[in-house]
Amino acid sequence: MKLELWHPDCWTVEVMEETGAGVLGHGSVMDGRQAFERCTIYGDSSDHVREAVQTAKDSTRISCVQEVQSTPTESIAPESAIGMFSQDVFIEYEFTEGIGPAFFSRGFVLDGPSQMEEGREVWPLLVQMDRSALGRRIEEIQKEYDANITLNQVTPADQDRTQSSFQAQLDELTPRQRQAYELARENGYYEWPRETSVQELADDLGVSKTTFLEHLRSAENYLLDPPETQSPSE
Q1: How high is the pLDDT of residue 26?
Q2: What is the pLDDT, as a whole number, of residue 137?
Q3: Is the Cβ–Cβ distance between 91 and 37 less than 8 Å?
Q4: Three-class SS of residue 72?
Q5: Of 174, 204, 173, 164, whose CA–CA distance to 186 is shortest?
Q6: 35, exposed or middle or buried, with CB in 10 Å at 0-12, 13-18, 19+?
Q7: Which SUPFAM superfamilies does the annotation name (predicted)?
Q8: Could you tell me the end-to-end alpha-carbon distance of the chain, in angstroms, rounded to an integer?
Q9: Which residues pair with 123 in a beta bridge?
Q10: Among the four residues 20, 52, 132, 225, which has the most C-beta atoms within 10 Å?
Q11: Per residue in 162-213, pLDDT tens?
């Protein structure tokens, strides 16, 4: 399943709103009342990422933030991550300060990185329960954390997950990648002759030409060669 959520009093909201950077969450573990999690903070420049990391450190909702690599440019983020720079961090916080433990303690398992960007969080999850029980669990979390949760996709376990539609592939793109691709398509970038230029599209999106191309090429590569179609040797 895949869901989109927002909840108040979250350190990732602070990072997104104050810096415009994004965060990938790789799952958390709990030890008593403390939660520990590895995250990837990413942005469009090394300074952008440093600013976001500092914002996380300044948050009163996190007990400790420790960089895993020495500089943002040395961090390795998934290919789908937005931005050319990223920094892996290890964070510690009280479990009541994060919504992740609320899911994991109710039987949900993270099925890939959660992504926090542009004011929203997208979580891919696995769970073994019927829809009625699923609805009750989601409702419990919404009430407990004053959260807004939207189920975007629920796929039965016996359904072939590799048979995804083009729309489903679009949904797998990060928000900036999808913006870049849809902006290019809507403005005739793929027409012949082209009806717009990369620079014009970058200006419309408010980013540099290099950054726009990074988003667009990542989107194109994913749509043309999604991970489930790649052979094990690739």
Answers
A1: 87
A2: 93
A3: yes
A4: helix
A5: 204
A6: buried
A7: Sigma3 and sigma4 domains of RNA polymerase sigma factors
A8: 26
A9: 3
A10: 52
A11: 445 666 777 778 888 888 989 998 998 888 777 889 899 999 988 888 888 8
CA-CA distance, 182 to 189, in Å (whole number)?
A: 10
Low-confidence ranges of the chain (pLDDT < 50): 74-82, 162-163, 229-234
**Fold assignment, 166-228:** Arc Repressor Mutant, subunit A (1.10.10)
CA dihedral for 85, 90, 94, 98, sign (positive or negative): positive
56 contacts 65 by C-beta, under 8 angstroms = yes
Structure tokens at 154: 């629920």
User: For position 56, what pLDDT does the model report?
Assistant: 93
Q: Which pair of structure tokens corresponds to residue 149?
A: 């949760």
Domain range list for the chain: 2-153, 166-228
CB 48 within 8 A of CB 105: no
Nearest partner of 29 among 101, 134, 117, 80, judged by Cα: 101
Residue 51 to residue 70: CA distance in whole angstroms: 15
Report H helices in 106-208. 131-145, 166-172, 175-186, 198-205
SS3 214: helix
**Residue 41 near residue 86, CB atoms below 8 Å:** yes
